[in-house]
Write a structure and sequence with these properties.
The chain is 25% helix and 24% strand. The chain is of the alpha/beta class. Strand 4, helix 2 (61-66) and strand 5 form a beta-alpha-beta unit. Helix 3 (85-95) runs antiparallel to helix 5. It is globular. 44% of the residues are buried.
Amino acid sequence: MTHSGSSQITGVLLAAGAGTRLGRGPKALLPFRGRTLVEVLAETLYDGGCREVVVVLGAEAANIQKNTDLDRYTVVENADWAKGMAGSFRTGIEAANPNNSILVALVDQPGLTPTAVSRLLGAHRPGRITAAAYPDDAGHLKRRHPLIIDVGLREQAAEAAKGDTGARSFLKAHPGLVDLVDCSDLCSGEDLDTKDQLHLLEA
């Protein structure tokens, strides 16, 4: 699959959290479609057209590696995962092929589909940031994950990441660079954060 622009895309799957609010251990290991959430989502990025996939682990990394099959992917560990998403974001960017743009996805979005990933890749333009978006109750598109950060913006985005925000501070500082792509017809875009959302795993 070829994409616009010269760079290929590396999928970076952030899967380092402990899942404290959910209380079921790391979300990466939650059972989903007969496997685990991290296995299914890594495959989703790959099937959607990402040239390579980097999986960033943190909480219970050894346990996750023992109980999953992630051999097709580059698996890296963020030892400082407890300090927030920024460290995992930077770890993932550093592990990705330096010539590639990156697509950042979260392990707690079980509804993500290869078709949605493919739509984002197809919409991406050089020098831009391309984000999945979902309409709010008023019909306004709201930026969510996954998002593609162009190869030329990777370093700046990594440097701007602080605490638990990942790319958010960089995106807020450069709103004019962000292209929103409505993916609501393909998936829900909901994050799995609380027990009342466990139904997302039954889809």
